[in-house]
UniProtKB/TrEMBL annotation:
This is TlpA family protein disulfide reductase. SUPFAM superfamilies: Thioredoxin-like. It comes from Dyadobacter chenhuakuii. Residues 255-411 form the Thioredoxin domain. InterPro entries: AhpC/TSA, Thioredoxin-like_sf, Thioredoxin_domain, Thioredoxin_ResA/DsbE_sf. CDD domains: TlpA_like_family. Keywords: Signal. Residues 1-25 form the signal peptide. PANTHER family: PROTEIN DIPZ (PTHR42852:SF13), THIOL:DISULFIDE INTERCHANGE PROTEIN DSBE (PTHR42852).
Amino acid sequence: MKINDKIKVVALAGATLLSSFAATADKPGAKSPKQGIWRGEFVISETHIPFNFEYNAKNAKDPILTLLNGSRRDDFHVTKIGADSIFVKMNTYDAALVAKVESDGKITGEYRSLVPGFRGNSLPFSAEHGKDYRFVEKGKEQPTKHNLSGKWDLQVFSKAKMPDNVALLKQEGNKLTGVVMSTVGDSRELEGVVQGDEFVLSHFSGPNPRVYKGKINEDGSITGVISSGIYDNTKFEGAKNEQAALPDPYKLTYLKEGYTKLDFTLPDLDGKQVSLSDDKYKGKVVIVEIIGTWCPNCTDQTAFLSPWFKENKKRGVEAIAIGFEQKDDLAYAKYTLGTLKKKYGIEYDILFGGIADKKVASEKLPALNRMMAFPTTIIIGRDGEVKQIHTGYTGTVTGKYFEDYVAKWNKDLDALIAEPVPATFSSANTTPAKSGK
C-alpha cells in the first residue's frame, strides 16, 4: 500500500466516529450545548480534576469550544455527531472530547485517546452550564493566613526522586495561579484556590488533564500530590526560595566527545529521505527541533519557531522538525505531523524519527550524549557544526524566563547568521539581512 493510500486509511479511521452519527445531527429535537461559560470535571477513582470552558455557536456551522486556564485560551472546533452529541478534536493532540447533551442541559462524556491501538485510554467527565468557578463557589471561600506568591523549590517523587522543579505562584485572596517548570518544560498555566491550609491547582488545555493538590505546613513548606487523569500520581514537596533555579538548559544535552556535527537521514512526510548533508542546508544556519505532536511543550515551541522562521528564512536560515510520534508508522505520522503543519503554518521541513521514545531518539541521533527531553532544539552554524543545544522549552506563562530565552535566541541567531559562508559553500546559499524578532 502506498503512503498516500495509507494516510487515507488513517484519516478515515479517525473519522469513523464522526460519520457514524453525523446523519442525525440536524434532525428535529436535536440538542446543542448552551452558549457561554461551563464548568467541567473529570473523575477517575477519587481524583476530581475541574476545568472551565466557553461554548460559542454564533457561527452555527463552526461552533468553538475554548478551554480556559488563567489567562490562557485554547480554541477547538466542535462537530455535531448526533442529535444530542458533540465531538471536539484536541487540535494537534490525537485525542478528543466525546460528549452527549443530556435532557437537563448538562454534558456527559469522556476524554478519549484517538491513537490507533491505544484502547482503554479514556477519562469520564461531566459539565454544567453557567458555572464560572473552578474549585470553590463564590462566597464559600475559607479564610487563609497563607500567601503562596513567589518562587518555590519543588521536589517531585515518582519511583525515585526526580530532578528539582521550580514553581512560580501568584496568590490574590483565595485565588491561586502559577506554573511549574522542570528540565523538560513547563506545566502551562495552572489555576486554583487556597482554602485554609490547603491548596489545589488544575490545568486542561488539550493534552492530559492534571491537578496539583497540597497542604501548607506550619513551617511554610508544602506537600502534596500531582494527579494526571490517565497516568500515575506523583508526590511533591516544596519550600519557598527566591533563589530557586533549574539546571542550565544549554548544558544538559551535548555532543559526545569527538563529535562536532550532527548527522541523520530520515524520511519526510512523503517518504523522501532527507539529510543534513543535502545541498539545501549547506552554508546555512540550521535549526533542528526534536518534537512530538503529543507533547504540549513541543507545540508551544512550534508556535514560537514557525512565525520566527517565516520572518527570517530569507536570511540564510533553514529549520527541520523531527517528529517522534505515538505509533512507529509513517502514514500515522503524516496525519499527526501534517495536522501540526497546518495548525501552525509551518514552512520548514518536517521529518519522521520514529516512535515517541527517548531511547529511540537517542539511537537516531547518536552524536548526542542522550535525548533528555521533547522538545530539544539544536542550532547548527554555517560551517555545519553544532553551536548550541537547548533542552526543553518554557513558554510565555513563565514570564522573564521566556523573555530571557527569546532575547538570547535572537542574539545568538543574529550572530550566527552574520558569519560569512565558508568558502567551501556557494555564497548564493544565503544573504544576511536584518536582525530577527
